[in-house]
Design a protein that fits this description.
mainly alpha; globular
């Protein structure tokens, strides 16, 4: 994790306090819950620790790739390389984020970020302790096209900083900016368990990737936050690892090798012995006309 994020932690906590005061005056907001907030902050701290360790391995990996770069973007474009990095890093983030929703093993690493039934700035800090391990491969192309590791880490940091403010109900639509940028409205959709909102709006800074690749949804109905099957526990270890445990249980009863592989690498909700509850299946069922 870049020092930029560490330096921002006091600002994060101050903004959380301000939003908490705002939420107390707005009964329509999901607001803050004591245990929920503590869990989010605890997972955020755990993520910082894991990220610090994994960053060393990522640095070595990116440095090796950079030594074998196929082009040299910085040498070719100079200062303009920063603008190119802004776009390229966000595309990498989109690939990372979408994959972590559509591949169950990766979803097991990411799911804890979606486990709160509240939506506030502390939810932004409810980060995974395992995505630091699964994430670096998605940013590897940046090193291969000539971005040095320190620039990649900087871009990852500004993406995280940008995404913090998206986790709020205090900000409404932002007009024309909604067409290009990820906004609190778009990201509220991403955290919704409404059928129409499942696996939508994966972008980090920009929403254009979702518009281009068919994963965009507008906020047009009240958002219900959380998981399609919500957790009943706020214990950090349960929140962090419950889906890995679920994969283990499914593997134990898998009827074949093919089913076992599907339980690990297929979409979340896939089932070998009953109706699948994947995001696509839930969306299609919600759209289907109901019999009279």
């Amino acid at each position: 994790m870049s020092d930029l994020v560490l330096y921002a932690i006091p600002a994060f906590l101050a903004l959380i306090a301000l939003e908490w005061a705002w939420a107390r005056r707005h009964a329509e907001a999901t607001g803050y819950g004591g245990v929920d907030t503590v869990t989010s902050l605890g997972l955020g701290l755990a993520n910082v620790g894991v990220s610090a360790v994994i960053k060393l391995a990522s640095l070595a990996w990116f440095a090796w790739l950079y030594q074998h770069r196929v082009v040299d973007v910085v040498a070719e474009f100079g200062a303009l390389a920063w603008l190119l990095l802004l776009v390229a890093e966000d595309l990498c983030y989109y690939a990372f984020h979408r994959s972590h929703h559509e591949i169950r093993l990766l979803w097991a690493a990411h799911v804890n970020h979606h486990s709160s039934q509240r939506y506030n700035l502390s939810t932004a800090l409810r980060q995974s302790v395992t995505t630091p391990i699964t994430a670096p491969i998605f940013w590897s192309p940046l090193a291969l096209i000539g971005f040095p590791p320190w620039m990649i880490f900087t871009a990852q940091a500004w993406s995280l900083l940008y995404q913090f403010w998206l986790h709020t109900e205090a900000i409404d639509r932002l007009g024309p900016l909604e067409w290009v940028l990820n906004t609190p409205s778009h990201h509220r959709v991403h955290h919704g368990k409404n059928p129409a909102y499942l696996d939508r709006n994966h972008g980090g800074i920009f929403i254009v990737w979702d518009r281009l690749f068919g994963t965009f949804a507008v906020e047009d109905e009240p958002v219900r936050y959380g998981l399609t099957t919500d957790l009943t526990s706020q214990r950090p270890l349960t929140v962090a690892f419950h889906e890995f445990a679920a994969i283990g249980r499914d593997l134990a009863r898998a009827p074949s090798l093919r089913a076992a592989l599907a339980y690990v690498f297929g979409p979340p909700g896939w089932s070998a012995d009953g109706p699948s509850q994947t995001a696509r299946a839930i969306r299609e069922a919600a759209r289907a006309p109901r019999p009279d």
